[in-house]
TrEMBL record:
Gene Ontology molecular function: monoatomic ion channel activity
Keywords on record: ANK repeat, Ion channel, Ion transport, Membrane, Repeat, Sensory transduction, Transmembrane, Transmembrane helix, Transport
Residues annotated as domain Ion transport: 494-736
Main localization (coarse): membrane
Protein topology in the membrane: Multi-pass membrane protein
Taxonomy, superkingdom: Eukaryota
Entries under SUPFAM superfamilies matching the protein: Ankyrin repeat
UniProt subcellular location: Membrane
The species this protein was found in: Brassicogethes aeneus
Pfam families attached to this UniProt entry: Ank (PF00023), Ank_2 (PF12796), Ion_trans (PF00520)
Gene Ontology CC annotations of this record: cation channel complex
Name of the protein: Ion transport domain-containing protein
Record bears the keyword Transport: yes
Regions that span the bilayer: 491-513, 525-547, 567-585, 632-651, 705-726
Amino acid sequence: MNKKEPFCRANSICPTPQSILLNFVRTNDIRNLKRLVSTNPTLLNYVYKTDLNKPILLIACTETGIKPDTVEALIDLGADLNYASPYDEDWEAIHFAASYTNSHILKVLLNKSPFKVNSLAKGNNALHILVKHGNHDLDEFLKCAELLVNSGIDVNQGDEKNVSAIFWAAKKDYADFIKLLLDDNLLNVDLDSHKLREFNTNNYDYGRILFAYLKSNNETAFINFKNGEIIQMSNLDDSYNTLLQLSCEKGLNEAVQHLLNKGADPNLRTEKNSKYPIEIASEQGFYEIVQQLLDHPQITLPKKLIIYLLKNIDNEKFPHKDHERCYEILLSKLNVNNNLADVNFADEYGNTALHYSVRYAEAEKTQELLKLNASLASKNIYNTMPIESIEPELLEKHLNDCIEFNTKSKTIEKEDFPVTFNYRSIIPPIPKKDVCVADYDPELKYKAFSEELVKETEVVFYMSHAPEFRHLLKHPVIVSFLFMKWHRIRWLFFVNLLFYIMFFTSLLLYIIYSFANFNEEENTPFLNFVVYLSHLIFAITFFILVLRELFQIIVSPKKYLMSFENYIEIVLIFITGCILCSPNADTDYRKQLSSTAILLSAFELVLMVGQHPKLSTNVVMLKTVSFNFFKFLLWYSLLIIAFAFSFFILFTNPTSEQPKNSTDTEDEDMFTGPGKSLFKTIIMLTGEFDAGSINFQHFPILSKFIFALFIFMIAIILLNLLNGLAVSDTQIIKNDAELVGHIARAQHIHYVESMLLGNIFPEKFVNFLQNCCCCIPNCELIVARPLAKRSCLFPHYLPYEMTVYPNKQGEVVMPKTVRNRRFLFSSCASCHKIYLDKETVRRTNSIIQEKRDKLKVKKECNQLDKRIEFLLKIQQENKEKLDLIIENFLSDKYV
């Protein structure tokens, strides 16, 4: 998971301190510069984006118009002279000053840090960079060279090609530069050769000799130097590379082996080159060097190594260079020791190794990562999980592998035969936080604990929505996971159900005996007590209901508004609030509120009871049939409306023909207006035609034809279609009731989990405030964390896996700590036992038997291969003997 910065500034109306500092430097406003940096020293280390890509000191060394005093002020304030820009060949401040031929700034840098004069950037010192990139036409060029020479720069230093600066000057015909170096009697300039070929080991630095051998790819000389006794020099560096780093970059396999044998640290890096030696070798694809480094007992693997190799796994292969081979070597090492690397490490885009594998690599490589517990629930910055790109067949194969048992066990038929379900790959990766025991702090412990809680149902929730994965919800690994998740949150369901039953009962009693009681007789004392108690409970539960809904809206407004059930609750809260706040309203108003409240609250109770796994299928049938019914009916609503208006026009009595002294006809005529006509037409859909009261006299032929057409098309055909649709939907759900139940359970558990682990401060709202004002910090508060702990499985309840005894009716083996807690509330051993359902146990046994059969076939194939190999060996021996006999026979014959 990506760590959030303490402050975020994006599109703020306030100018950023970084832009203010840059302006002060460009205008040489030293006084305000010092004042700003003194209040915020971290500004000196900020790396500017866009075209700059440097901290402020390097910018000051590259832009024109900036005075040396400004650079000196930055250094005095603490600017890092050692910072090497990764965007500019790892150049430091002294290299930029030399490149831009700025003698004044170069002088300041040398005065402030004279020991930096020989600092190297990929083998180049400041003199190399001056000759290669400086402007020779300026008078400043020779001044810069003189400053560097007088400061003691090594004029014989070789660059990455082991070429000295004087050679580059000769190549560019810089005669004045060469004259400057030769006129200095104190300099021992190597004029015999621009490359170092021979060394006087009595007077020459051993380290430079070793680096020169490596740069010239002379492994033999490197290994034989001082008869191979370089134990004290094995970790030398030239300020940019260590000997091992350079050997890995050059692909010198024997040199790497020699250094490791002589005690070189396989993890040693320099300030300028932060890459591990194994990282350098992997980038080049030197698989032999990678193998040697992985075999070292003290090797440390970079976090992004697996991702890099996966991204380059299809690179072209060359002799001794093969990225795919490097990846295979690394994976084989991780299979032995999974703690060497974090397979769930995410890059700058939030992608893990599994993200790249499911898209670009072969299925076998994806399966290998999954066996190493790579998470299918890791989300990148686009909220995409690896499971969204994986093939269903591969996922099913992996889920089968998650059912672990002893393949060599001969006690498979015994009761105590254990089977383990491994859940590590279906839950999000849990961020690790190291807590020092010596620095124990309760607040730190709470923070470490908070980072362990994650949304565990992300993968299962996605599977419940993706048609290609839904059938896998019946897999024993998924079913057992959902079963245990429900086992953890069922207490919350029953508490919520009990609370709502109290709300519903108190609302019903209050409406019947008080709010909608229009009986003028005075209540008995008992009824008065019932009214008072129901009103009190109704008020308390109503307040709790409002708080519950507000909490859900704040934590996850998008999820809340996407649920139809929540809209019922909003309307119910509004209506019950009106009932609670207006006990003395008029009779008609109270009747309408009461009837609506009873209907909505009862409907909500039915939906809430349907959240239980054993009843979820019934509610799913109700929802599915209702939705499809109304969707189908909506499509034909135009015909129903058309018939309603036709009836209104045909069956309405003219005003002149209506009786003057009677209202009976008007009361009985349902087609006197468009609204009444539509209502009557809808009633007629149920078969209540009441044809005797319909006036066919005015248009006897047309009206009867249209009425008959209505009966045929709507009452007969359409209603039978709707009934058939309902029966079909019901039958489909009944035929796959188990899968429907798993889907409903997964979605309900995910909703509850997202609420319990949701942040009470909306992320988008906080981001909006941060965009408006730069001083708003990132806020995160999960108020339901105690409830979340009791709802999450890992790591406080189960250790990312669960053991089951299939031959004991699917008995679940609970961890010892959980059993001890449960024994506090139970007096017998059998009270705390949990059992999986029979169908899940049956599927588990089936998968176990299938895996055993495959292993048996594989074993037989291996034995057959060994027999064939043995026969081929005997055949070869007999062939050799026969050839020898023939040869002896022919030789005797000629003799």
